[in-house]
Automatic annotation (TrEMBL):
Gene, per the UniProt record: dxr
Domain 1-deoxy-D-xylulose 5-phosphate reductoisomerase C-terminal: 150-233
Key words, A-Z: Isoprene biosynthesis, Magnesium, Manganese, Metal-binding, NADP, Oxidoreductase
Protein name: 1-deoxy-D-xylulose 5-phosphate reductoisomerase
Keyword flag Metal-binding: yes
Organism: Rubellicoccus peritrichatus
GO molecular function, one term: NADPH binding
Residues that coordinate or bind NADPH: 15-18, 130, 209
Length: 394
């Protein structure tokens, strides 16, 4: 029996869907995981509850008004040290006692905190796929330079990570990412035209935050994940494919050069992937019921329909184009999803905004991070303009 590894965890995005699942795992394994710091955007009441329950002293609240309220309340333990804004997240990511930083902040805001964590020598458990899509070259470079691990929390990537244990990457022919296909996998394009916010926010298999739920329904999520896989495992576009698997039981597969396929299975609940990443290389009893093979189980697979899901096609094209194209895809998609959730544009407009931004933002091959940040800002501005023009037409 190996010696128990105990890790001190910084959890960025503690109040979200991944954050909550992470807390369930910390609760289950107090001897292996202790919560050193937490952070969220503005909902300070749940952060106070977490701080009290887990005895956390370091608390980041991004939003300054919310932070003011939190300070004035007596909801937090008396010895709480508060951190504000991105600078606060960076400080938390580099706390000297920490040895694992979990990044579960939606969007790209955590790019600098995640880079800081790696530069300070911390392993990074990563849910925020957007930062890899935007700046994978710089994030993976920082991990390598500082001898740190990026442990995937995203279920597909965690599945591939598990399938690759003990294997040489040279023996891999293909990574096969599974996709549920989302709630509209059997809709026609005409039916999709009238999809509402409420419909897009209901995923058939997964319970997730709003942005990733909409991304799953457009399959932009799978597109982001293909690019995420490219950076995590260092394989090119022709070695990463997508298959629709409506049951979400097989979380991804690795096909080797000899034709063997290794698949990872678990119920469609994020705790399986999160626990694996947090405890790696250890394993322990999980928090949710595993698959019960005494009950009938059917697994279906079919190819994706790129015509019906243009966001998936656009992501694949952005990956092939390289340079800043993936960052533009990601930024435009974030703007478009926000506009859709604000009911300013229609469902099919999401892909129109993304395609318009990809056609407009000039391509470049970023040598420094600032160039990505500039292109990201430009893509957001252009996507915003396209979204406004579509709102005006509606
Ligand atoms: P969510 O919307 O439920 O939660 C987002 C979290 O980020 C919240 O804690 C929020 O406070 C925090 N946050 C947002 N902006 C912030 C800011 N400016 N400063 C500090 N904190 C901020 O989202 P989620 O579903 O938990 O997803 C988080 C990430 O994980 C996303 O990148 C998503 O793609 C990825 N992911 C999620 C799932 C899932 O099942 N939910 C699965 C795989 C990957
Ligand atoms: Mg996923």
């Amino acid at each position: 029996m190996s010696q128990l590894i105990s890790k001190k965890l910084v959890l960025l995005g503690a109040t979200g869907s991944i954050g909550e699942s992470t807390l369930r795992i910390v609760r289950q394994h107090p001897e292996r995981l202790s919560l050193l710091a937490i952070a969220g955007k503005s909902r300070w009441e749940p952060l106070a509850e977490i701080a009290r329950e887990f005895g956390v002293r370091h608390v980041g609240i991004f939003d300054s008004d919310a932070l003011d309220k939190a300070r004035k309340s007596d909801a937090f333990p008396a010895d709480t040290i508060f951190y504000e804004g991105v600078e606060g997240l960076i400080e938390l990511a580099c706390l000297p006692e920490a040895n694992l930083v979990a990044d579960a902040i939606v969007g790209t805001l955590s790019l600098k905190p995640a880079l800081a964590a790696l530069e300070c020598g911390k392993d990074l458990a990563l849910a925020s796929k957007e930062i890899l899509v935007m700046a994978g070259k710089f994030v993976t470079r920082a991990a390598k330079a500082n001898n740190c691990r990026i442990l995937p929390l995203d279920s597909e990537h965690n599945a591939i990570f598990q399938c690759l244990q003990g294997e040489e990457i040279e023996s891999v022919a293909k990574l096969i990412l599974t996709a549920s296909g989302g709630p509209f996998r059997d809709f026609t394009t005409e039916q999709m035209a009238s999809v509402t916010r409420e419909q897009a926010l209901k995923h058939p298999n997964w319970d997730m935050g709003p942005k990733v739920t909409v991304d799953s329904s457009t399959m932009a999520n799978k597109g982001l994940e293909v690019i995420e896989a490219h950076w995590l495992f260092g394989l090119g576009r022709d070695q990463i494919s997508v298959v629709v698997h409506p049951q979400s039981i097989v979380h991804s597969m690795v096909q080797h050069v000899d034709g063997s396929v290794i698949a990872h299975m678990s119920p469609p609940i994020m705790t399986f992937a999160i626990q694996h990443a947090l405890l790696y290389p250890d394993r322990a009893i999980g928090v949710d019921k595993p698959i019960d093979f005494t009950e009938a189980l059917q697994l279906d697979f079919r190819p994706p329909d790129y015509g019906k899901f243009p966001c998936l096609r656009l992501a694949m094209e952005a990956m092939a184009a390289e340079g800043i194209a993936p960052a533009v895809f990601n930024a435009a998609n974030e703007v478009a999803v926000d506009a859709f959730l604000d009911e300013k544009i229609g469902y099919l407009d999401i892909a129109r905004v993304v395609e318009g931004a990809l056609e407009t933002v000039p391509s470049r091959d970023p040598q420094v991070l600032d160039e990505i940040l500039e292109s990201d800002a430009e893509a957001r501005r252009i996507a915003g303009e396209i979204a406004e023009s579509l709102t005006a037409k509606a």
